[in-house]
Amino acid sequence: MTTDPQTESVQRIRPILGILGVLLGASLATFFGRLLSVGAPDLRGALRLDFDSASWIGTTYNMGLMFIGPFSVYLGGLLGPRRVLLVSATIFTLLCIVMPFAGHLSVLLFLLAAAGMTAGTFYPLTLSFILRNLPQSYLHLGIAAYAADIVITTHMAHSYEGWLMEALSWHWIFWTIALLTPIMIALVVFGIPPQPMPKPTPGQPSPSWRGFLFFSLGAALLYGAMDQGQRLDWWRSGTFVAMVVSGSFLILAAAVRHFSKPNPLINFPFLRRRNTVLLAFIIMIFRFVLLSGVVLVPSYLTAIRGYRPEQVGPVLLWLAIPEFLAGLLAIYLLGRVDSRLIMAAGFATVAIAALMDSHITSVWAGNSFDLSQIVLAMGEGFAFNGMVGTIVLDLINSGSMNKGPDVLSFSGFFQTIRLFGGELGATFIQFFLHSRQVFHGDLLSADIQGGSTPVIERAHILTSGMHAQSATQDIALGRAATLFGGSIRQQAFTLSIMDAFTLIACVATASLLIIACLHGLKVGFRQIIATSAKPAS
Question: Which InterPro entries match (predicted)?
């Protein structure tokens, strides 16, 4: 029996279009979140919001992402990925069109939460669709595309937002996504064929939405509490306490419900495997060390050097090139060496880059980070591709690739860990920077009060410099004191950034111990590629 060549061509093209569609969706969800974060000052000014009110813009969107991450497992198992992606992408497009016209902050926050809940379906369904529709011999190429997709998007936000504010307006933070999402919809329409509604396995209970709702809502509340914790002053805030207590209660209720009435879409024993748990910790560590380039460098350049987003952008954007090339090399090596070695090499390189940046001083500018950022980009390229490759191989070795609940559970679990771990790291680094800045500020102030010789000389120089611009001695002393206080704050912040780079280097090094504890995998990409290359008998 022969197969029509045209039919074979369609069968080959369709999964490729579908994979491009889900990759674009994941990229858009990430890009929109980064634009909201980078463009927060411009949005605050355009919408005439105070700092506290505007801080909820990014938080609300990310809470929506967090809510829908676990719930996507239920939706994907109940309706199938095609239906979920098409409906979510359509709603997401409409929301991005109307959000600039929201006349009140509460309306905007409601729309952002809905946008997060629609865009959040793109993440877990992306990995699960790639795993189930790409031939295993090409899985390493799918990993490369997924990694490049996330990495390039992360580094583009500063440059693009700066260009938007110069050439267009803040409205295009939303409308850019509204223009690109229909492309994703078209790719999904033509790339993912219609499928009948999934049916539960005979003898199993029908899936229940209640446990997913409890867990998703609880996780979203905890996420919001962590994101706002530093601003709300943690346990001194009634809002923070209420979010933590209610979120914890809902997650506990979800756990009690699952173990009393198991949901067929979740396979907890599968998620309790040793490698799965260790890989979850590695994901959280990767999200933490990623803050080196995404948070620490921009924070330093903005606070100390006074850079605008369009100036910070070039410092980060070009790093996508070495990171992409390192990712390609990592994918090439995945077919030849153990993925754990590639991942370990990546984290070790990230530690070296962080140690290089730990020598930062208050005179560094954007080009001072060039060499360390190249090393960091190479390390992230190796670490991310090696990490995702190990996750995929772990799923293959478990024998669960053809088990829908296992793949959905796997993708939903790692999506939840990715978001929750990323927020945990970002919250901790904010707390760490603040506490270390206060610590160094107190030490520097103590030196001033002690009246050391260098301090006295510096005070005399500043006072003398202010005499020409001041009518009286008291005014000159006041201006000198203001400059001196600014210098102390600048130095204290620089020292806190230095400590944060040192911390990231230590955490990246500690990840090597976790990687060493991973079980060896019997089937690697070398065996998968070799098996697929054999002609069928």
Answer: MFS, MFS_dom, MFS_trans_sf
CA distance 268 to 317: 40
Query: Would you call 306 exposed, middle or buried from its count of C-beta atoms within 10 A (0-12, 13-18, 19+)?
Result: exposed
Which of 144, 187, 255 shows the shortest CA–CA distance to 19? 187
Task: Give the distance from CA 382 to its chain's centroid.
Answer: 17
Q: b/e for 191-202, b at 16 or more Cβ within 10 A?
A: bbeeeeeeeeee
C-alpha 115/C-alpha 98 separation (Å) is 11
Give the CA distances from residue 502 to residues 435, 439, 495, in Å, rounded to whole numbers and listed in that order: 15, 16, 11
* Residue among 274, 301, 20, 32 at smallest CA distance from 174: 32
Q: Which is nearest to 156 in space by CA: 328, 43, 383, 318?
A: 318
Distance CA 457, CA 463 (A): 10
Q: Which of 531, 488, 511, 475 is nearest to 386 (CA)?
A: 511
One-letter-per-residue 3-state SS of 95-164 = HHHHHHHCCCHHHHHHHHHHHHHHHCCHHHHHHHHHHHHCCHHHHHHHHHHHHHHHHHHHHHHHHHHHHH
Which one has a higher pLDDT value, 415 or 137?
A: 415
Look at residue 204 and give its three-state secondary structure.
Answer: coil
Per-residue pLDDT of 183-194, as tens digits, reads: 989 988 888 777
CB 203 within 8 A of CB 65: no
What is the C-alpha to C-alpha distance for residues 123 and 117, in angstroms, rounded to an integer?
A: 11
Q: What are phi and psi of 333, to 5 degrees?
A: -75, -25
Structure tokens at 421: 């771990």
Of the candidates 434, 298, 285, 309, the one whose C-alpha atom is nearest the C-alpha of residue 369 is 298
Maximum C-alpha span of the chain: 101
Half-sphere exposure of 497 (CA within 13 A, CB side): 25
Calculate ∠ Cα 169-121-340, nearest 5°.
105
Token pair 């045209």: residue: 6
Tokens standing for residue 66: 């967090």
CB atoms within 10 A of CB 368: 18
pLDDT in tens, 217-273: 999 999 999 989 888 888 989 999 999 999 999 999 988 887 777 766 666 666 678
